[in-house]
Each structure stands twice: as C-alpha cells, then as structure tokens.
Amino acid sequence: MGSKTKRGKPGRDQASKRPERPTKPAATAQAEAAAAPSAEAASAPRLPRARIEGLLRLKSPLHIGSGDTAAWRQDDLPAERERPELDTAPDYHTCCLLPGRGPYLPASSLRGALRARLHGAGAADALRRRLFGEVPPSPADGQASAGCLRLRDAFIDADASLPDYRALADTPAAGNNTRCPPDNKTPALPPYWMQHRGTALRQGIARDPRLGTAMDERLYSHERVPAGVAFRIVMDLIDATRDELRGLLALLRGWDGSLAGALGARTGKGWGRVAWEPTDVLTLDEATFRRWLAEDDPTGRLDDCLTPDPALLAQAQGRAANATAPAPPPGVLALDLKLTPRGPILVNEPGWRPADGADDEHTPTHYFSRDPADGTPLLPGTSLVGLLRARARRILCTMAAGILETAADGASPAAPTDLLAEQAAEALLGRLFGSAERRGALWLGDARAEGKLRAADQDLPDADPPPAGAEAQHVKCHEQTFIAIDRFTGGTRSIRGQGALFSVQGTVDGSFRAPLLLETARLARQEAGGTPHWWQGLLLLVARDALEGDLSLGWGQGRGWGAVAFRLDPAGAKAGSTTANLAHATGRMADGDSNAWPQVLEHLRTLTGGEPRAWLEQLEQAIRTELDPRAGRTPAAPEQRIGAAQPSTAEQPQ
Questions:
Q1: Do residues 45 and 186 touch, judged by C-beta distance below 8 A?
Q2: What is the reported pLDDT for 604?
Q3: CA distance 307 to 278
Q4: Is pLDDT larger for residue 39 or for residue 600?
Q5: Are strands 512-519 and 442-444 parallel, antiparallel or unpaired?
Q6: What pLDDT digit, counting tens, does each position of 59-105 carry?
Q7: What per-residue confidence (pLDDT) applies to 14?
Q8: Distance, CA of 117 to CA of 120 (rounded, Å)
Q9: Burial tier of 17 (Cβ tally within 10 Å: 0-12, 13-18, 19+)
C-alpha cells in the first residue's frame, strides 16, 4: 500500500438522512445472529493487519496440475541419461508454472488445503467462517461474508531449496551427477529433469489385474516438482483477533510432512507431502495503524509499520512452553508400515539408466528407484498401493465367485460369473482405495530405506555380528546378470541388438519404512448402512496374505525377486490381545509374525468396535449387496448369508 487519502467522518445530519433499512425476515435475522461472532469475540481487540511468512518444503515430489498437457522433447532431458521412446511416450500432464519463474503453488490450492483441515462445529466452524468466509445456500439464510485471510501464489525460494537442482545442473560436476544414480554422497538431477522448466517427469503404467502385465495404451506421465524444493509463503490477516491468528498458526503446523497434510494430486500414493517452516510473524496494532493514517507522508508504506512478534513466532515454530504437537485430523489412523526384503528387490526407474554408449557395455538395463537428493533407495507409494489393491481385488473376486456358485436359488446369472465378480470387486475397491469418481481412504507413502546405501562391490565394515533376529542396518546394491532365452528355439537371443546378456541393479538387505494413513471416520460415514465394517474384514484378509509372505513387489517376481516381509508396529498398541480371535477367524498365521498385525487390529477395534469374525461376515454381505442387482436377483436377506467366512486367496486361488 503506498499513498493514502484522509477521509472525514459524516456528521449527524448526514447520518440522519440515510434511508432506513427494510425489516428483515425473522429467519434471516436468526441466521445472521447464528453466524455472527460471539460477544467475547466481538469485544476482543482486533489487529488491523498481521502477516505470516515462512517456507513450505517438499518432503516428496509434488504435482498441482494446470489442466493442460505438453509433449516430450529430446532437448529437455539430460544428454547422459537414456531418453524415452518419444513415439510411444504420451503427452505429460503439466503442473502450474509461470515462464521465467518456474513452478509455483497457487493461492487457491493452499487456501483450499487449509480450509479442508477445519472440520466439525463449534470453535473449528467459527474459525473457518472467520478465516475463509461463508456463502449461505440462499439469500434467505443470511448474508455472505468474506474471510479475513489473504494468500498469495508461492514461488520457489532458490536460496532455501536443498538441493538447488537448477544450480546443480550448471556446475562442472553436473555431467557425472547426471550420468550415474546418486550414492548417498552427492545429489543428482532427478530422472527426466527439464532444466528450462525446473521440473522432472515421472512415467507410470496401469497393470492388467488378471495378467499382471502392462495394459495397452495405459502409459501416463506427470510433471513433478522434486522433493527438497522450498516455496516462500506470505499470508495476511485483515482485522483479526489474536486468538484467530493463533488458530491459523496451529492450523499451519498441520503441514508437518505427513500424508494427512499433503497437497496436490496423488496424495494417496505419497506425493505432495510438505513441511511448514515459519520464519516470521508480524503484527500491526490499532494505535500504530491510526498514527500511520494521521501521517502526511504520501510515500509511507503500511508494511513498514509491521513489527515482529517473538511470542507468536515461538508458537508457530512449536517452541512455546504451552505449544502442543499438531493433532492429526479427526477419524484418521496414522501408522508406519515396515518392509524387509527377503531377497533382491527392484522397482524400476528408467530415468536413472545412462544413455547407450555413456558407460561400459555392462550398464544395467534396470535401476532401482531412489531419492535424487541423497540416493536413498525407496519403494514408490504407487507400487505399494497397487500391490495391496491387486491383492484385495483378488480376494474380493474369489469370494464373489464362490457366492455366485453357491447361490441358493440356482438360477443362472444375467452375465458370466467372472464378469459379475469383477464388477462387484471394483465397486468395493473404489470405496476403499479410490477411483476416478472417489478419493481413496487408504493412503501409502514412499517406503524409504532406513539404512545407508553401500555399493555392490563393498562389504559391511568389520564389526561384531548382530544379535539373532536383528535386521541389517545397511542397504546394498545388488546386480545380477541374466541370459535372454528365445522361447521358441530355446537358444539365446539378443536384446536391442546388444547380445543375450543383460543385467539389473536392485537392492538387498536392510529395511524400508512407509507412512500409512486410513481415514476411518470417512469410511464410517459412507458405510453407514448395514455393513459398516466390511472394509476391516477385507484389510484383515490382505494382512493375513502379507504376513504369510504371499506378496511380492516390483520386477522379476518369477525369478525370485521382490519377496518382502511386512510388519506394522504402532506405538502404544496392546500386542497379542486379539491373537486368539484372529486365529479363530482366519486360520493359522505365520510363525513369528502373529504379534504384528493384531496390533493394528486392536487400534481398529478401539476406533470402530466389533470383532474380526463380524468384519468378515459384513464383508461377505457387502459383496452380496453388490452382486445381487448385477445378477438380476433380489438382495439376499441376512439369514441367507453363508455361515462360514471364505478363505483367503492363499487357499483358494482365483
């Protein structure tokens, strides 16, 4: 704000000439009275202006779409990396970007993310209306009001971004960093890095749920801002109380790097995790504002009158004596999923492979996924969600097919059994894992290695052997060479005209940890009918298969790669309290693993109630509810349900 103009107040004679307002209907007056702030809030002193400044740092890659697409270009990608086949690569979905300034976070996206975190009635609803405003459904319900929060588009702060990928690409050592994947020592440009846009590209595929192979014409690409990049955030509060300012500061602390506060697209698969780093809180009191108005200097800026408030900054940073940790959103179960490879594992990232001729002839054809900032191996959240969804789909199809085959009426269904089973399975999967029309309630982030990465030709340092049962503290590269065999002749065949030998690079040893989030309250709301706990029964069967070692991840599962062991250790759980119920409901569990998943089930029982056998019965009834209309039958009555729960896919494959 620059110059200012003084305005006189109207006299009493002027005020007396104002036309009288028409009398409002009683319903309108009551609605406005309900929406008005309380007497305490109205009497509280207000700040003419307050400003909050800070950084929003990406903990995982982010995609906030612009609604447009663009074509891959050879000149965009590092010369030392292998290029995608442009004739088969589809256009990529672009993110929000301004030419010359790079990617940015739209103020509308930030505002919507903050507003979505304010749930419920009472104080949360009052703060939501004050910060973000309110538009009644109709004029008869009251008058619309604007919020006091002002947000601006957030742009990259190059000085605070770690690492600064734009500067890294201009360094003399950039050639080595772009040719080889990082090794826990030096950062490298992300796969498919585009220097002129300051973003990277990520390719993905859709797998056929029956065959497990890539589906035709289902290759997709997204433009992403890599992890480590920091955006400068500036927001203002106009005519707000200190309590409202404190409420906003507490709300911002919900951006703590967890899945619950993620932004943008594909948050259910680990994208868009952000961490809030406040740098300053400035306020302007009423007396200073009046002095600024009374000044005759036309060049005076109101921003120069803002003064730092150390107490509020300490609260924003969580350093105040009475500051509490940000509470998770209501009705959300947040846990850590631990995965331990039982052999080599490889989730391929083609963007790490050097270009042909850039290295020796033994360059691996596949490289495992890793964080470009430090080279830490990771298992992408997209792969983990796909793994659990595929297993859940197989369980649902198996149970649905069994229900159709043992139908009491004996009438032939209106469509083939496998088609009806798949339709019912997809309907239920969409309610738990999400679909094009519905956001998923089960979220999984990237699983990062807990130990440091060691090269394939290096051994662990000399030390005493770990105690029995202890897991390795390091992850090692693992390269293996294979020979391509012609399926018709039984002889060797060349790959890309370079001979029959090819090698792949995966990881072995160590362990990985991924955040898991389950929106139990939203599931309870949308499943308010007769089977509110069916999803618990489905997760129970998926958990059993995971414990028994039936799940494999990534490349080469037919060659012995990708076997993983799952563990889930929520803090404060009562281990073993549901072991007997689980054994009765699901049969024998794997030896040594019976103390892992019962802990999360104990949490689920606390949140939603019920017993494992009841969950499985409700799962069966939910499948029947989806099957009966599709099969042209009247929905089965509760007494017509099958008495015993169906076994998992480990015993009854689809």
A1: no
A2: 56
A3: 16
A4: 600
A5: antiparallel
A6: 999 999 999 999 888 778 887 788 887 777 778 999 999 988 899 99
A7: 39
A8: 10
A9: exposed
